[in-house]
Prior knowledge:
Pfam families: UPF0014
Subcellular location: Membrane
Distance between the termini: 63 Å
Largest sheet: none
Shape: globular
GO cellular component, one term: plasma membrane
Strand content: under 5%
Order of helices and strands: HHHHHHHHHH
Number of helices: 10
Helix content: over 70%
InterPro entries: UPF0014_fam
Radius of gyration: 22 Å
Protein name: Iron export ABC transporter permease subunit FetB
Amino acid sequence: xxxxxxxxxxxxxxxxxxxxxxxxxxxxxxxxxxxxxxxxxxxxxxxxxxxxxxxxxxxxxxxxxxxxxxxxxxxxxxxxxxxxxxxxxxxxxxxxxxxxxxxxxxxxxxxxxxxxxxxxxxxxxxxxxxxxxxxxxxxxxxxxxxxxxxxxxxxxxxxxxxxxxxxxxxxxxxxxxxxxxxxxxxxxxxxxxxxxxxxxxxxxxxxxxxxxxxxxxxxxxxxxxxxxxxxxxxxxxxxxxxxxxxxxxxxxxxxxxxxxx
Length: 261
């Protein structure tokens, strides 16, 4: 007998809101000062997910490649803006570089996955393209933010050491090699940690969603493998590109360390 998906209606979601209400109540009881933040986050979750659900229903119905690509470009732009805000708004040219880095890593990952692995009848099949891109973008955003924050902080806090290396004849790349390496490793920590414990400690969104939707657990596990491999490539590529872009911003043509803010 094929399992059927339990549909969630508005009444069930209203009951689910009880969990958020209890969390807000606990915050008030413990005087954590988080009640307002939790209430706003809950409201935004409801509004944003209702909006995206309605919008994606339209996109899936129309199946227009132009509209789908527009949605993806908007998602990439929002990811780049968010990463820029976390790293620092005072670095000129950073937003454009982040946009290009996230676009490049996401495009390479999705192009390979759609043409070599999944191979749907239509390359722009929204049922595959939009969810896969969304998962890649979320993790690329995290990698970009962590790498950028770590490297910018290191370049600003270790000027004397870097300038000493430069004065001894080191190239900018050699002078910041240690900081660059540590920043890239920091950007990959969430992805690597997830890969280490996936299936043992956590059941991520892809496998959970497919199982809840009635899919065969083994096939869901295979899809989750695909996701983890995609994320490993995308996050590493993003981190490398972001680190390179920040290095370009912090050194002038005379190979001198500058603060571009």
